[in-house]
Write a structure and sequence with these properties.
A hairpin with a 5-residue loop joins strand 8 and strand 9. The two termini are 32 Å apart. It contains 7 helices and 12 strands. Helix 5 packs across helix 6. 32% of the residues lie in helices and 24% in strands. It has one domain: Spore Coat Polysaccharide Biosynthesis Protein SpsA, Chain A (Alpha-Beta Complex), CATH 3.90.550. The strands form 3 sheets. Strands 1, 4, 5, 6, 7, 10, 11 and 12 form an 8-stranded mixed sheet that branches. Strands 2-3 form a two-stranded antiparallel sheet. Strands 8-9 form a two-stranded antiparallel sheet. It is α/β, with parallel strands linked by helices and 219 residues long. Bound molecules: cytidine-5'-triphosphate and magnesium ion. Cytidine-5'-triphosphate binds next to helix 3.
């Protein structure tokens, strides 16, 4: 199986509030995007395409390894992944889509996703259980209901796909009004079953400054 990794790194990181795009922010002296690329490679991905913000393309090229393919992303994560997918080589059987914002993803998570694809899944996501009591609130902040958390899962990346399945799902979703926050939702909208493997707390997404501080402590 030949696997291409796509790293979505074209966001600006508004909630982190750094002066740089989030994927260029340093963790242990190394840009987040470089950690994400290495996690994919260490887990068994053969080549990597990274979607970056157009104004900082040169800055990304300067920090990424030479054999990483850099493409300009879009205004949404979906648009960024679409751009990277168009650049992914057609001889690849599998595509793993990963967030640059998940720098400390253990290679074992990547390997579990690849193993599920090798076993025949067309789509697979790493997941974790929900541990907090989970409720529904109305616009005034009043609790209106409980949610049974047993079947709930938090979805991480990398998310793995049969390449032709992902390409077809992205083509079908083009122009639709739906907003997708990940790639498995694009594939599920096309009617493809999405399998799960165990995620890992270390694959947590860096969204706000506290997340970056926690990641520094983990090093
Ligand atoms: N992403 C992307 N292209 C976009 C928006 C997001 O490639 N137009 C990427 C981000 O770089 C990130 C991942 O998608 O690695 C997850 O998005 P998120 O954590 O929301 O990052 P940002 O959009 O950069 O942050 P914020 O929403 O706080 O601005
Ligand atoms: Mg965002």
């Amino acid at each position: 199986m030949h696997a291409v990794g796509i790293v979505a790194a074209a966001g600006s990181g508004l909630r982190l509030g750094a002066e740089l795009p989030k994927a260029l922010v340093l963790l242990g002296g190394r840009p987040l995007v470089c950690w994400a690329v290495e996690a994919l490679r260490a887990g068994g991905v053969d080549e990597v395409v990274v979607a970056v913000p157009a104004p900082q393309q040169a800055a990304f090229t300067a920090v990424l390894p030479d054999d990483v393919h850099v493409v300009v992303g879009g205004d949404t994560r979906t648009a960024s992944v679409r751009a990277a997918l168009a650049a992914a080589r057609e001889h690849a059987d599998a595509v793993l889509v990963h967030d640059a914002a998940r720098p400390l993803t253990p290679p074992e998570v990547v390997a579990r996703v690849l193993a599920a694809l090798a076993a025949g899944a067309a789509a697979v996501v790493p997941v974790l259980p929900v541990v907090d009591t989970t409720v529904v609130v109305d616009p005034d902040g009043l609790v209106t209901g409980d949610v049974a958390r047993g079947p709930l899962r938090r979805v991480q990346t990398p998310q793995g796909f049969d390449r032709t399945t992902l390409v077809a799902a992205y083509a079908a979703a083009h122009g639709s009004a739906a907003e997708f926050t990940d790639d498995a939702s694009v594939v599920r909208a096309a009617g493809i079953p999405v399998h799960t493997v165990a995620g890992d707390e270390r694959a947590a997404k860096i969204t706000v400054p506290h997340d970056l501080a926690l990641a520094e402590l983990q090093l």
